[in-house]
Amino acid sequence: MSGQVFLLPDLGEGLTEADIAEWRVRVGDTVTIDQVVVEVETAKAAVEVPIPFEGTVISLHGDEGSTLKVGTPLITVSGTPAAHEQYREAEQSGSGNVLIGYGTSEDTGRRRRRVAANREIAQAPKASATRVISPVVRNLARQNDLDLSRLPGSGPGGVITRADVERALDTTPDSTDVQRIPIKGVRKAVADKLSTSRREIPDATTWVDVDATDVVQARRTINAALPEDDKVGLMALLARLALAALARYPELNSTVDTDRNEIVRYGHVHLGIAAQTPRGLVVPVIEKADSLTTVDLARQLRDTTALAREGALPPSRLTGGTFTLNNYGVFGVDGSTPIINHPEAAILGVGRIVDKPWVVDGQLAVRKVMQVSLSFDHRVCDGGVAGGFLRLFADYIENPITVLGRL
To answer: Is cis: bond before 152, omega within 30 of 0?
Structure first.
């Protein structure tokens, strides 16, 4: 029987390999053009891969959990080399037979429908949660003989996450044995980037405690005048205030070109938002965030982080940031020294808001207090600039009307 080999396609964004998360077909199945045959996990996103051929599956070139290089055999189906011409013609006509997230508008629409379906499932009762368990989570459970049907899920709608599986493994009778967990996918990408940041960037951190009482009240006042779909979260307001401070201190919206020994200062702020997901830490980017209204910024931040947690953002949405905002307060901590998201020049962190005694107009009062911190590249600015930016950001938090009233 003749066969047509489909190679793992170019995943874009400089990605050179992917892990096989879940095969959607088996040997002997019949496939059609544009049918999704496998879900792969790259260093930046989970991606469904459609096949540009039709026929019967002859072989699958890799087990779930294995890693394949771009350009190596992925799947073989019955057919002839003439299918190559079909592929080229379909690609040129925009049939959608290219990688989801990188292809035609039809393909993008299909991805959006899948994202919407995942969101609906995630909101379903707990009894149906196992339908949306990540293939990576299933593989980890299978490798350790863990019965997922007996495991409670901590994710939205009771979805079982990787953290749930790892906690269960830590409490099993053989927990004293050594467990080796491969560093791959998103975790490997994060590890590589943070290691590069520590190795190449001479960073320093400064921080300050801030009275956030007025910004919390400002959010209530703003939302009282907005329809439900346009409500503004506190993170969106903090992002808006950070963007306003960056306009006064553009040195921090830059990077260092080591090859040319130059500081590259950007004209717009492409704002990265550090987000914890079941697949690890990712930093989705909101392009030209400085040109958005507060409501539009809030909407984009809400939608972007939701898609990131679902693993539904294409890699192009996870790169290109020029400045990052990290809300470590969601983990219940007051402060941190965040690592700069290489190759950016700075990262702004915000802690939790708690009631604390605070002196106001010479009188002791209970106020809502938070700590903010800034890690910065000492090559692009000195402590005066970094301290000036952080102090201005803190002043905006304590007097938000001076900024929000004109944005």
So the answer is: no
CATH of the domain at 98: 2.40.50.100
Residues 6+ apart with CB under 8 A from 179: 144, 169
**Tens-place pLDDT, residues 29-83:** 999 988 999 988 877 777 889 998 899 999 999 988 888 999 999 999 997 555 4
**Quick check: 103 and 92 in contact, CB under 8 A?**
no
Q: Can you give the CATH number for the domain in which 366 is found?
A: 3.30.559.10
Q: How many CA atoms lie within 13 A of 30 on its CB side?
A: 0
123-141 pLDDT tens trace: 433 333 337 576 677 778 8
Q: 47 near 35, Cβ under 8 Å?
A: no
Distance CA(279)–CA(41), nearest Å, equals 10
Residue 176 lies inside a defined structural domain of this protein: no
How many domains does the chain divide into? 3
Chain center to CA of 5? 33
What is the 3-state secondary structure of the chain? CCEEEEECCCCCCCCCEEEEEEECCCCCCEECCCCEEEEEECCCCEEEEECCCCEEEEEECCCCCCEEECCCEEEEEECCCCHHHHHHHHHHHCCCCCCCCCCCHHHHHHHHHHHHHHHHHHCCCHHHHHHHCCHHHHHHHHHCCCCHHHCCCCCHHHCCCHHHHHHHHHCCCCCCCCCCCCCCHHHHHHHHHHHHHHHHCCEEEEEEEEECHHHHHHHHHHHHCCCHHHCCCHHHHHHHHHHHHHHHCHHHCEEEECCCCEEEECCCCCEEECEEECCEEECCEECCHHHCCHHHHHHHHHHHHHHHHCCCCCHHHHCCCCEEEEEHHHHCCCCCCCCCCCCECEEEEECCCEEEEEEECCEEEEEEEEEEEEEEECCCCCHHHHHHHHHHHHHHHHCCHHHHCCC
Q: How far apart are CA 256 and CA 103, in angstroms?
A: 33
19 by Cβ neighbours in 10 Å (0-12 / 13-18 / 19+) ranks as buried
Active site amino acids? 378
- Residues 311, 350, single domain; the answer is yes
